[in-house]
Amino acid sequence: MAEKGVLIVVSGFSGAGKGTIVKKIVSESPELSLSISMTTREPREGEVDGKSYFFVSKERFEEAISNGELLEFATFVGNYYGTPRKYVEEMISQGKDVILEIEMQGAIQVKTRFPEAILIFVTPPSAHELKRRLTERGTEDEATINKRMYRAYEESEFIDRYDYLLVNDDLDKCVEELHGLIEASHHKPDCSSGLLKKINEELKEYI
Ligand code: 5GP
User: pTM of the full predicted structure?
Assistant: First the structure.
């Protein structure tokens, strides 16, 4: 039986650059599958339905919640966001690693359901830099940027729920570090893994 894949959850302040980090690592790692989330947010310019997100109505999202189609979900600055369950479960059981780029409430739900998931939080080096990146992106108005800054402040109190912290002051370095964390997560002794069960069985012959 194939070993199970690792579930990697990347969160970070909105504007911390986690989207760019995740895109880069996925493009460099064919064995890493990216989960596409469902959201009720309006598409931004250049975003493609089914690639960036599955863009759905509030009614469709609420139907997905009640049908148990989502692994986790949360509201973020007035919109729903959630991870479709089926894709993640299929990939993991086929031994493929899956990466989720989701906010904090969702990440904590994932950790509760999959304690073996690794949770990684990405932060810019300062709050000033966060505001600068959000403003420079030019995709949100001032009021939304301020809401996102407030949300970052709230989230900053809970970062210790994560397994690892990445400081994003250099994209390539950050992606390199993320590769390292994923690699390391494959060396966690998972007691249900096939290899450990096999070794345990083999050892019985020597006792
Ligand atoms: P954005 O609107 O900037 O694309 O995303 C807003 C926030 O929602 C980001 O922090 C992003 O990581 C998070 N997010 C995206 N997809 C999901 C999801 O499926 N579940 C949860 N809980 N958060 C998500």
Answer: 0.90
**C-alpha of 70 from chain center:** 14
Which tens digit of pLDDT belongs to each residue from 79-94?
999 999 999 999 999 9
Give me ligand 1 centre to Cα 70, in Å.
Answer: 14
Q: Amino acid identity of 85? A: R
pLDDT of residue 174: 96
Q: Which residues contact 192 (CB under 8 A, 6 or more apart)?
A: 4
Instruction: Give the pLDDT confidence score for residue 131 in this predicted structure.
Output: 92
Tokens representing residue 33 in the block: 């599958």
Between β-strands 97-101 and 164-167, what pairing exists: parallel, antiparallel or unpaired?
A: unpaired
Look at residue 189 in the predicted model and tell me its pLDDT.
Answer: 81
Q: Which of 191, 166, 45 is nearest to 115 (CA)?
A: 191
- Domains in the chain: ranges and CATH: 7-35+97-206 (3.40.50.300)
Find the 85 Cα to ligand 1 centroid distance in Å: 15
| Phi, psi dihedrals of residue 123, rounded to the nearest 5° | -130, 145
For ligand 1, say whether the CB of 56 is within 6 Å of any of its atoms: no
